[in-house]
Amino acid sequence: MNAHSYTPTAKLLHWLMASIWMVAWFLGAAAVYMREAWNPHHGLTITHKALASTLLFLIVVRVAWRLTHPAPALPASMSAPMRRAAVLGHLALYAAALLALPLSGWLWSSVAGKPILVLGLFQLPPLTAPAKEWYDLAKLAHVTLAWGTGALVLGHVLVALKHHVVDGDGVLRGMLPEARAGRSPGRGGETAAPEIG
Ligand code: HEM
Fold this sequence. Notes:
The chain is 64% helix and 2% strand. It is an all-alpha fold. Strand 1 and strand 2 (122-123) form a beta hairpin. It has a two-stranded antiparallel ribbon with strand order 1-2. It is built from seven helices and two strands. It has one domain (8-181). It binds protoporphyrin IX containing FE. Belongs to the cytochrome b561 family. It comes from Methylobacterium dankookense. This is Cytochrome b561. InterPro entries: Cyt_b561_bac/Ni-Hgenase (IPR011577), Cytochrome_b561_oxidase (IPR052168), Di-haem_cyt_TM (IPR016174).
């Protein structure tokens, strides 16, 4: 554990949501762009919605946890503009990738009059009555958010890798499971410290 460590619950929520998000992204894209070969009976679309819709519940738990368990401090080596960029980037990930994107999918299915079966277990209530006139706009919102947040998440992954490989600080290790997080002290040379986030 190092001074930049998140709590085990925060790590679990982060990696669970990250895995669901990435699988959902590729399922959504495959449903659209491989429709004839892989999605002739809408199986991929149904699986995409069943999985992606769980993010709407997990985000509530995640935000509640985050508000009651502040994130660990960023490394002192980061400049003020970089700190501001990190805070804004994380806010954008929460707001756009984890909230607006699933909400836009929910809206799209609602205006199309199509059901969303969360994990195949129960149905989400529609946000609106079916409305053909809003179909194109809802679709555009979901597709634009899907590609925009795809770029955002890619940037997030690259910045995390830069922290680890180039800066050698504890930022990425602070989000890794315990055994891996404790393996090497890194160039920042942090010593073990109590978990603070
Ligand atoms: C309640 C949650 C969601 C619902 C109801 C939903 C619904 C849909 C639907 C109906 C499609 C079109 C599939 C088809 O035409 O066969 C789609 C496409 C897509 N979705 Fe979602 N979605 C949700 C969440 C998400 C999330 C969280 C992501 C990202 C991780 C995502 C990424 C995509 C992508 C990349 C596409 C393809 C976009 C394109 O046309 O280029 N969706 N979604």
